[in-house]
Write a structure and sequence with these properties.
With 257 residues, the chain is an alpha/beta fold. The chain contains eight helices and seven strands. The chain folds into two domains: 213 residues, NAD(P)-binding Rossmann-like Domain (Rossmann fold, 3-Layer(aba) Sandwich); 37 residues, no CATH class. Helix content is 47%, strand content 14%. Strands 3-2-1-4-5-6-7 form a seven-stranded parallel β-sheet, with helices on both faces. α5 links the parallel β5 and β6. α3 runs parallel beside α4 and α4 packs parallel to α5. The longest helix is centred in the middle third of the chain and has 29 residues. The two termini are 34 Å apart.
């Protein structure tokens, strides 16, 4: 399929899952708007590389996803938003009775509130264009829970719930809203953690991956950013026109347990 003529805004997309999604959407022909809270030369060069290699228009827009006004400004600066991928997120781990209030507030702001602000701003653009796709990057933790991740689990459950609401509100329009729920994904951040974890547990790389990092992922394999990007492209395709208000798990069987 071709997404030529469509513009996709992907939050939190200068690395990891967001960047993988941006690449796959651009390879499918969409113009892409990358985003993060930094404003470095390498951020803008990253967008330029995507544009050159895919023949699309790609640019980078700085916006702090913890600030509602900046979330809305991101969509306004994009000028057009046919595809919105809410991906920005952070994590913090702590028992709930010790969970720092500022960390709770930051996670809810970036992982959940930002999606509200971007969606509310993008929907009128989609309606004006007569077509739209909302794809929220949730998590297996949007469907289940783990100890010590109260804010993250709450935010991701919230994202799944908001996705369903938007789907119902747009059900009779050519707009769909869905959530992708990844398990553990091999990103540069995760890759960087492997050597230290090998030392901590005195294990081989393979054992660390299978027995520690992927303990809850039955496939014992990481999902890849390309797989998540491909899932996003599928949700933007005509084959997914009647898929709305649901979750797609890319978790190696985690949520089947």
């Amino acid at each position: 399929m071709s997404l030529k003529g469509k513009t996709a805004v992907i939050t939190g997309s200068n690395s990891g899952i967001g960047l993988g999604v941006a690449w796959e959407l651009a390879r499918a022909g969409a113009d892409v708007v990358l985003n993060s809270f930094t404003d470095r030369d390498e951020d803008h060069e990253l967008a330029a590389v995507i544009g050159r290699e895919t023949g699309t228009q790609a640019r980078y827009v700085k916006a702090d996803m913890s600030i509602g006004r900046e979330c809305r400004d991101l969509i306004a600066k994009a000028g057009k938003c046919d595809i919105l991928v809410n991906n920005a997120g952070i994590q913090y781990v702590s028992p709930i009775d010790e969970f720092p209030e500022d960390r709770w507030n930051a996670i809810i702001a970036i992982n959940l509130n930002s999606a509200f602000h971007t969606t509310a701003t993008a929907l009128p653009m989609m309606r004006a264009a007569g077509w739209g796709r909302l794809v929220n990057i949730a998590s297996a933790h949007g469907l289940t829970a783990s100890p010590y991740k109260a804010a993250y689990v709450a935010a991701k459950h919230g994202i799944v719930g908001m996705t369903k609401v938007v789907a119902l509100e747009t059900a009779q329009e050519p707009i769909t809203a869905n959530a992708i729920c990844p398990g553990y994904v091999l990103t540069p951040l995760v890759e960087a953690q492997i050597p230290d974890t090998m030392k901590e547990y005195d294990m081989s790389r393979e054992d660390v991956i299978r027995k520690v990092m992927l303990e809850r992922q039955p496939s014992k394999e990481f999902a890849t950013v390309e797989q998540l990007g491909g899932t996003c492209v599928f949700l933007c395709s005509p084959a997914a026109d009647q898929i709305t208000g649901t979750t797609i798990s890319v978790d190696g069987g985690w949520t089947s347990l």
